[in-house]
Amino acid sequence: MSTSICAPIYIGLMSGTSLDSIDAVAVRFEPGFELIACHSEPISSAIHSSTLALFNPGDNEIERLGRLDLELAELFATAVDNLIRVNHLDRQQIAAIGSHGQTIRHRPEANFTLQIGDPNLIAERTGLTTIGDFRRRDMAAGGQGAPLVPAFHSALFRHPEHNRVLVNIGGMANLTILEAAGDKPVLGYDTGPGNVLMDSWIKQH
After folding, report:
1. For residue 144, what are the β-bridge partners?
2. C-alpha span between 92 and 37 (Å, rounded)
3. Would the CA dihedral through 49, 55, 58, 59 be positive or negative?
4. Are 102 and 85 in contact (CB under 8 A)?
């Protein structure tokens, strides 16, 4: 990549309900949105099993969670390093990493959600500013912690004359409703299971 002065690069990290890999992307937002590079880092069967085991209450949860928190963070950091290495990105142009973390419990009815994959360790391993824990901040502001993608949809797809509706089918599916009027709030909500059911069926058959 050119070392000329340009808009900062941001790296996003995401693992979902499928638990098959960590997706890492490098993007710019100025002067317009640009997808620069992407990378998929496999999740080992051991980490996959350990994560699934924490989805429901069980024995010795805090100890198991603490260890997995660090194991996932190491894997997230590896995903970042591989994204940078394979695509020849300049670390000096990377402003920050946004790491969603792996959801272990999500209880919006109790104003409680938990994502693990310690962003402090990611920052130490990569040498890059790392921001995480997005869902709990949304809950603190009165939201349900999900979905978070409507803010991005609004920035990228809102039109001054046309109403738009977007469907995002991840592990859970959600809708974003973007009214043409710029002063109308963005409306977004989960609609129910998405690919999580398909993933389960494929693994069984």
Report:
1. none
2. 16
3. positive
4. no
Tell me if 50 sits within 8 A of 68, measured CB to CB: yes
Cα dihedral 198/115/155/92 (nearest 10): -120
pTM value? 0.88
Q: Tokens 């962003």 — which residue?
A: 119
Architecture of the domain spanning 9-140: 2-Layer Sandwich (3.30)
Domain boundaries, given as residue ranges, for the chain? 9-140, 150-204
Give, to the nearest 10 degrees, the angle between helix 61-86 and helix 45-53.
Answer: 140
Q: What is the pLDDT along the chain (205 residues), one digit of tens a residue?
A: 444 458 999 999 999 887 889 999 999 999 989 999 999 999 999 999 999 999 888 899 999 999 999 999 999 999 999 999 999 999 999 999 999 999 999 888 888 999 999 999 999 999 999 999 888 988 898 888 888 889 899 989 999 999 999 999 988 899 999 999 778 889 998 898 988 888 888 888 9
Beta-sheet strands, E only, within the chain: 9-15, 21-28, 34-42, 94-99, 102-107, 112-116, 130-131, 164-169, 172-178, 187-193
